[in-house]
Amino acid sequence: MKREDWSDMATFAAIADTGSFTKAALQLGISPSAISHTIRALETRLGVRLLNRTTRSVAPTDAGEALLRTLRPALENVARALEDLNDQRDRPAGAIRISAHRGAISSNFMAQLAKFSAEYPDVIVDLSINDGLVDIVGDGLDAGIRHEHKVDKDMISVRICEPLQTAVVASPSYLSLHGTPQTPEELRNHRCLSYRLTTSGGLYRWSFTRNDQTVTLDPPHNLACTDSNVIVLAALSGVGIAYVLEEQASEHIKSGKLISLLEDWCPKVAPNYLYYPSRRQMKPALRAFVEAMRVGGN
Prior knowledge:
Blueprint: H1 3-18, H2 21-28, H3 32-46, E1 51-53, E2 58-60, H4 62-87, E3 94-100, H5 107-119, E4 123-129, E5 143-147, E6 155-159, E7 164-170, H6 172-178, E8 192-195, E9 206-210, E10 213-217, E11 221-225, H7 228-236, E12 241-245, H8 246-255, E13 259-261, E14 268-269, E15 272-277, H9 284-293
Parallel strand pairs: 3-4, 3-5, 8-11, 8-12
Antiparallel strand pairs: 1-2, 5-15, 6-15, 7-12, 7-13, 7-14, 9-10
């Protein structure tokens, strides 16, 4: 077998696995146009069409499926052999691709990442920030970071932080003009800054608890945004009242630029979990990352 045949067939398998030229290109680190050229050249050399292409999907032909049945075990054997070699290194190396929602990137996360990077300087962490749900397998990612209830059941998940404290905040200028709410119900009379959920498009509901009492609101809003950092900036500018993770506003609360409201009502929310496929052999670099980031890790 020629060297280019092996490389091209690995590319073909990546397209079949992801169902997308674009996702396969991202996974392999090459351009979509290069992927298209590779497949055309492979099909020409073999004299058969391997993929059916439409504007919405890519799927193997019967000939492609027949090739994949033989090709996949061979590729998996090679991948295992390479991982075995990497296991013999003194230190893990290579890149790991992680998808995280914005709220997961806290000062504690960065402190743990700094320790990890110092201990494993040959590992590159490629971090993608996405507040929506992602298909880590289809998108060629190694792992994701989400709240536990958003993790698929066929994934292995590891808790990487404690439950997260929420906060309701507003600027002194806003409160001087509109007054300070004393109960969650009084928020109905205020201008609020709502977070729009990336995946569903709906608005995040504000939840409060005190003793045995729970209050859930869809507060009136004069701004909705899919970026929680923008919501904090809007609160700093006096646009309205924000409901955010305390970590995102703590610096501004300490400086007095934001005032923390309804503190005895603000609940904690589920901690973040690092998750990865249960059926995929774990890279040594990812294994080291998981151990470093888990609660109680190094």
